[in-house]
Amino acid sequence: MTDYIEYKIQLKDDAVKDILIARLADAGANGFEEEGSILKAFAAAGTDQSEFEKIIAESGLEYSQSLIPERNWNAEWEAGFTPVTIGHFCTIRADFHAPDTQARYDIIITPKMSFGTGHHATTHLMIEAMEGLNFQGKQVFDFGTGTGILSVIAEKCGAAGITAIDNDAWSIANATDNFNLNECRKILLFNQSGFDENSSYDIILANINRNIILQNLAGIKQHLSSDGVVLLSGLLSGDEAFMVAQARVHKLALRQQSAMNGWICLQLVNG
C-alpha cells in the first residue's frame, strides 16, 4: 500500500489551473482532482515535496497539504470518466459506456492515472491533428504514450507499425491494457525515454511537455524520415514563438498550428 500527499490548492482562474497542472505533473504529481475552485494534486509519500511547494508558491495561490492513505484510484477515475467525441473522427470511452456507431473509430480507454483520454486540450488537439494525416503504411513513434490512446488511433488509421514508449511503469501497464482492449496488433511498447539508435519514423507524436520536447528535438529530427511529420503538444500558447524558433535550429519547419484553451499543437516537417 502506498500513502499519498494531497495538496489542496485554491484556484483563481482556469489559465492558472492549466499551467499549474502542467508544472506539477512535470515535477512528479501523479493524479489530479477538481472540486469547484479547489485543485487537488497527489504525489506518492516520500516524493521530494520541495519542488511542488516551490511551484505552488510561485503561483501565489493558497494551499494546504495532508497525508492520505492509498485509495481506489481506478474506481475514482471511472466514476468521473465521460466519453469524448472529436467530430465524426472518433469517440473515446470506457468499456462500460455504450459503443458509438456514428464515429469512424470507437476507442476504449481505461484511464487509471495515466495521461491521455481526450478530455485535456492537448490530447484533443493531437487527435484532431492526427485526423488530417495519412497513416496508411506509415511507421509511427509515440513519445510518452501515457494511456496509449494516440498509438491506438494510429493503428486504427492504418499505420504499418507503431513504437510507443514511456518511462513510467504505471503508464506501461495502463497502455498494455488499452492496447488489448482495442485489439491492437501493430504496437510495440517499451519502457524507455528515447529513440533507438538506428530507427526512422514517418510520423512522430509527442504530447509531453516543453522541457522534454526541447531535450529531444535533435533526436526527433534525426529519427524523422525525409518526408515525415511531427506533432507536438503539451505546450502553452505562450511557448509557440520560442518552440518554433528552436525547431528551426534543428531544421524543422512549422506547417500548421492549432490552439485550444491556452494550449497549442504544432505540426512540423523537415525544412
Commentary on this structure:
With 271 residues, the protein is of the alpha/beta class. It is 32% helix and 33% strand. The protein has eight helices and 14 strands. It has helices at 14-27, 50-59, 73-80, 121-131, 149-156, 169-181, 210-222, 240-249; strands at 4-10, 31-35, 38-44, 63-68, 84-86, 90-93, 105-108, 139-143, 161-166, 187-191, 201-207, 224-236, 252-260, 263-270. It has a seven-stranded mixed sheet, sandwiched between helices. The chain has a four-stranded antiparallel sheet with strand order 2-3-1-4, covered by helices on one side. It has a three-stranded mixed sheet with strand order 5-6-7, with helices on one face. Strand 8 (139-143), helix 5 and strand 9 form a beta-alpha-beta unit. The longest helix is centred in the first third of the chain and has 14 residues, at 14-27. The mean pLDDT is 89.
The radius of gyration computed from the alpha-carbon positions, rounded to a whole number of angstroms, is: 18 Å
Total beta strands:
14
Stretches where pLDDT is under 50 for at least 5 consecutive residues are none
Categorize the overall geometry.
Answer: globular
The biggest sheet amounts to: 7 strands, mixed
Helix proportion range: 25-40%
**Category by helix and strand content:** alpha/beta
Q: Name the beta content range.
A: 25-35%
- End-to-end distance: 51 Å
